[in-house]
């Protein structure tokens, strides 16, 4: 352990002399004193060795050998003999070991600050407790808020986006698109605050934003010469929302995406009667019990008290003509990844292979990625002499139709391609919408905005209110939309930094105020700048 002590003070052995090292109450204590050397005045810089007095400072240092370390350092107070210096006396400082008004060594103070930046209050306090430097969460946050924020350099390409602080409460985040790091954060998303920041930081050449009218006005007022870029992601997102609205307006046509299937033959009557289950037996017993004591002049509440049942249950069975009406019907099963292999399982069962493990291994070799348990459940009806349950495909939702239309045709699955083809053949409005979406996608892929005016005319003439409103919104911001299509600038870095910001909010359980959140986000950006 003495080697640890030597390592603690070894950088300062030429200035500090260790007099004693001992262990008391689980704490390593080091007694040291400064050497008689010339020290420069902090004001005038003149060297002095004339001692005014001596006093002892207690410094906490990083743990050694799993034990806290306290250094009792005797330092000198010296006279300043400079005739023009206004300071009469000053205390000497040891570089790398002492800081004015600080009871921790710079190394331990840096550890406390980094724990606050990376883990915030509670997490930082827990880490420091493990490192034998216990602090309360409020003390960790206090040390964090004391840290100075780095100076903001005006970026060439600026990203502006909003984020949700709380319910219906938003903030604004500014990101340097070149370094991909956040540089400023504040509560609210008003135009005047953004314009004021841009006026105090002249030199921004390009600003990436979404379609917000507030940010558009703020950039126009604060940096009128800057090129505004409407982000491609938000343009595509707005188009997808309009497609979903159109699909919802034509919901009656969505069932055309489901292929017509032949009605399944009803099971034989004797097979239906042979099917037995605990639920069916329970329904039959309740039906007989209720009808045995029911009387036209008797209240249902009295029957429920006699049988110990709920009044609603008694009412349901009393109104039923047979117990089969009271059996809960199983909803149709939805399609799963096993459905393409059901016919193969039925065929192998008829060939005599009844082991679920073997059947699972065979379809895995054919490309199935599911679990063995699903195969076991699928062939369970075959063991009882029943057919395999086939899924009942449902019509797609408007959001699913919008996803099919906005997906690149080469990346659509076979099922989605066939379903979309049937739907577009049945609904001319969705077919026209699909053609317009593909035209806009071609503009984005080619970074060519020349067809944009004609495309907007087609939107306005489509007689679809959702597309007409989109055309009007794009025309109002057409210059920024053209820049978004043709230039490589976008807001992807903004979205990534907002994801990081939300993570920091969750680390602090969502209770951090804007000043603390701003401190952590900007200081963490400084760490990333130094350690890429």
Please, could you describe this protein's structure?
The strands form three sheets. Strands 1, 2, 5, 6 and 7 form a five-stranded mixed beta sheet that branches. This protein is 48% helix and 16% strand. α17 runs antiparallel to α18 (452-460). It is an alpha/beta fold.
* General shape: extended
- What's the pLDDT, averaged over the residues? 86
Task: Give the percentage of residues in beta strands.
Answer: 15-25%
Helicity level, as a percent range? 40-55%
SS element count, helices? 22
Structural class: alpha/beta
What's the alpha carbon Rg, rounded to whole Å? Answer: 37 Å
First-to-last CA distance: 36 Å
Query: What's the main sheet like?
Result: 5 strands, mixed
Count the strands?
A: 12
**Which ranges are low-confidence, i.e. pLDDT below 50, for 5 or more consecutive residues?**
262-274
SSE topology sketch:
Elements: H1 2-9, E1 16-24, E2 27-34, E3 39-40, E4 47-48, E5 51-64, E6 67-79, E7 89-91, H2 106-130, H3 137-146, E8 157-166, E9 169-176, E10 181-187, H4 191-200, E11 206-209, H5 213-222, E12 227-230, H6 232-249, H7 269-274, H8 278-293, H9 300-307, H10 311-319, H11 342-350, H12 356-365, H13 372-378, H14 380-383, H15 398-406, H16 414-426, H17 428-446, H18 452-460, H19 465-476, H20 478-486, H21 492-507, H22 514-530
Parallel strand pairs: 2-6, 8-11, 11-12
Antiparallel strand pairs: 1-2, 3-4, 5-6, 6-7, 8-9, 9-10
Helix pairs in contact: 2-3, 2-22, 4-5, 6-15, 6-17, 9-10, 16-17, 17-18, 18-19
């Amino acid at each position: 352990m003495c080697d640890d002590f030597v390592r603690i003070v070894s950088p300062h052995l030429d200035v500090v002399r260790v007099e004693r090292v001992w262990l008391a109450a689980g704490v390593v204590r080091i007694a040291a004193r400064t050497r008689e050397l010339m020290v420069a005045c902090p004001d005038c810089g003149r060297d002095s060795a004339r001692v005014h007095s001596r006093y002892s400072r207690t410094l906490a240092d990083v743990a050694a050998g799993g034990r806290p370390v306290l250094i009792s350092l005797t330092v000198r107070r010296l006279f300043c003999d400079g005739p023009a210096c206004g300071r009469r006396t000053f205390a000497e400082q040891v570089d790398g070991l002492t800081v004015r008004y600080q009871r921790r060594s710079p190394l331990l103070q840096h550890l406390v600050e980094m724990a606050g930046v990376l883990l915030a209050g509670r997490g930082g306090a827990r880490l420091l407790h493990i490192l034998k430097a216990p602090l309360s969460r409020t003390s960790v946050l206090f040390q964090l808020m004391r840290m100075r924020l780095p100076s903001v350099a005006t970026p060439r390409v600026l990203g502006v986006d909003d984020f949700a602080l709380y319910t219906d409460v938003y903030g604004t985040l500014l990101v340097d698109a070149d370094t991909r790091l956040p540089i400023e954060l504040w509560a609210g998303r008003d135009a005047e605050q953004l314009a004021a920041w841009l006026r105090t930081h002249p030199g921004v050449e390009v600003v990436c934003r979404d379609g917000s009218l507030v940010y558009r006005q703020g950039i126009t007022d604060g940096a009128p010469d800057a090129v505004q870029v409407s982000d491609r992601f938000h343009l595509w997102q707005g188009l997808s929302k309009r497609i979903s609205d159109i699909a919802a307006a034509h919901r009656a046509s969505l069932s055309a995406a489901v292929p017509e299937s032949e009605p399944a033959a009803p099971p034989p009557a004797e097979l239906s009667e042979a099917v037995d289950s605990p639920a069916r037996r329970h329904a039959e017993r309740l039906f007989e019990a209720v009808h045995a004591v029911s009387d036209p002049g008797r209240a249902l509440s009295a029957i429920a008290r006699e049988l110990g049942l709920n009044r609603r249950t008694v009412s349901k069975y009393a109104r039923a003509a047979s117990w089969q009406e009271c059996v809960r019907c199983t909803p149709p099963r939805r399609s799963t990844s096993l459905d393409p292999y059901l016919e193969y399982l039925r065929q192998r069962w008829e060939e005599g292979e009844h082991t679920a493990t073997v059947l699972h291994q065979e379809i895995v070799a054919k490309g199935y990625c599911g679990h063995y348990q699903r195969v076991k459940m699928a062939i369970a009806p075959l063991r009882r002499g029943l057919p395999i349950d086939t899924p009942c495909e449902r019509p797609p939702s408007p959001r699913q139709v919008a996803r099919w239309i906005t997906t690149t045709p080469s990346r659509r699955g076979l099922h989605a391609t066939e379903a979309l083809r049937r739907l577009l053949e049945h609904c001319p409005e969705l077919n026209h919408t699909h053609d317009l979406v593909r035209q806009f996608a071609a503009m984005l892929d080619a970074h060519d905005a020349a067809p944009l005016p004609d495309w907007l005319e087609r939107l306005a003439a489509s007689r679809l209110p959702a597309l007409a409103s989109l055309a009007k919104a794009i025309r109002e911001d057409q210059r920024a939309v053209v820049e978004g299509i043709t230039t490589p600038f976008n807001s992807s870095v903004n979205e990534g930094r907002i994801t990081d910001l939300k993570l920091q909010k969750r680390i602090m359980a969502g209770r951090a105020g804007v000043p603390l959140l701003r401190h952590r986000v900007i200081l963490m950006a400084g760490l990333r700048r130094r350690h890429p």
